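[audit] Reproducing an earlier prediction to check determinism. Same input, same settings, fresh worker. If the tokens differ from the archived copy the diff job will pick it up downstream; this log only records the rerun itself.
[audit] input (614 residues):
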Amino acid sequence: MEIVLNIFWMIPLLGYIITLLIKPSNEKVLAFVAVSTMAVQLISLVGFILLFTSKQIKFINLNDFTVYSGHGYQFYIDLFFDYITAVYALVGGILGLLITLFSRRYLHRESGYKRFFNTLLFFYFGYNVAIFAGNFETLFIGWEVLGISSFLLIAFYRERYLPVKNALKVFFLYRIGDVGMILAMWLSHHLWHENISFARLQNLEIVHHQISNHSIEGVAVAMLLLIAAMVKSAAWPFSSWLPRAMEGPTPSSAIFYGSLSVHLGVFVLLRTYPLYEFQNSVLVIIGVIGLLTSVIGYQISRVQSSIKSQIAYGSISQIGLIFIEIALGWHVLALIHFAGNAFLRTYQLLISPSVAVYSIRRQQYLSVTNEFDSIQKLNRIKSTLLVLGLKEFNMEEIQYKLLWRPLKKLGKIAEPLSYQWIFIFLLIWTVISGAILNISLPAETAILFGFISVLLVLKAFSEYRQIKSAWWGIFFSHLSVVLALNILHPGLYLDSFLYLSGALISSVLGYWVIIKLQKSNESLELNSFKGLIEKHPKLGFVFLVSCLGISGFPITPTFIGEDLIFSHIKESEFILAIFVSLTFILNGLAAIRIYARLFLVQILVHNKNKYKTA
């Protein structure tokens, strides 16, 4: 029975691969494959859930296969099924099929028809990997797939500036959640001295004993997981990204940000609940965050002029209540609440265009009272809340001041640095370190290289002219991380090679695309969007793949290498862990930024020519 779990990630993956081979003009075949994939998945799920309940067992765990093993570290694919997975899988299966049926006609003759179904099936594959995951490593694979598919669907109308800008904003915040998950995996390795599985967490006695003896590490792991869940579920103070994500087609808004993807943070809290079940301080924090999210989301939703934004903040307010339910230990109620919220928001988002048209027509024939005429009658507290709601409680401004402005300032500090001298320094040090690996160097040297890696990728992130330097700066930030680790723990040749191999191949592949574009006499300065995806669609796809590879996406050995690198960083080396985490955040942002600048927002150029001839 355990082996059957594999089909639930294989079915959507197979459907995704088949749709890649179908011509974009063949809409009927594309829709048939997508609908068939979702239908087979749902039928299989229903049958498996009925069999699971008839057996009256608590959970099923399948340690599928080991990807990498060595130095006391093991990266293995683990699958897990219990009542939490059953609810999420069933809701996802039903809504996935409904959205696919709706989309086949809603997007008829849309230029990105094939691209939409490709990305939808890719998302559904990542969703199933995440909810069927039996350990953090497997969960992180699905987590990353959801992140990149979110970016692609928000930027679905890639010829427009606003969808691409909002897609970048969402991806930036997602990277914070990614690093929260990576650091939680890192600390859990030290807490358990192994890659802990979710089946092992079901033994509350072992968990309670381990958490009691390592309370600080236990709190840290729980808080890092909470940060990842807050970002993914748009909890306060990260709530502002959800309405911005509604720039994609209505069906993607419904399945991503109304029902499934936005509730994945809730899933993480439910799945890892044994880690903080005995930590009252963490439960209080979860409850407080849920309360703030619910109150602020409700207040903002009342003053939104856009239907999608109103639905988004309404969903956020309900997610805040689910956080409170989880903190109180009401898991069954939380699952019921999740299912109800998912179905309601999907329905509201799908009918929102019709409601908007009806409201516009109604205004033409009926006199509608302006709700804001009575604002003078409100007291000062209500007026203040109204203004704060209109400003979305300044969440974007707070994020800009606390997150992006410091990064920009650090980027300006790194601006005078010469890539050439840094590259030469790292190369010379690489050669020298090969001869003196047996000589112990002070830990400060490793921290210096960690800081250099952050500076390199910051400079690449803020680069507006030299695309080649920015591209290779991302790779050399990886190299600097490896050098820092080898200073502290000499002799990690195989691990270093595994980590760098994927990044190096992706760097060379991306550099080849840049050379090809230069030979086509394209302007490649990063000071504006170039919109080259129409002229060079194949090169755009290859460059996107190289960006994902150099960012540590699960398509190259670098993905395993990231987790492997962290397994060698000790608890006392937390400063180095912070620098490495920042490097992982920023290299993904820098790579996707370069891709967006080169290949997206092409209609702006056409509009300029149009306006000139008009």
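[audit] rerun output stored. Observation attached for the diff report: Residues 360-378, 603-614 have pLDDT under 50 and may be disordered.
[audit] end
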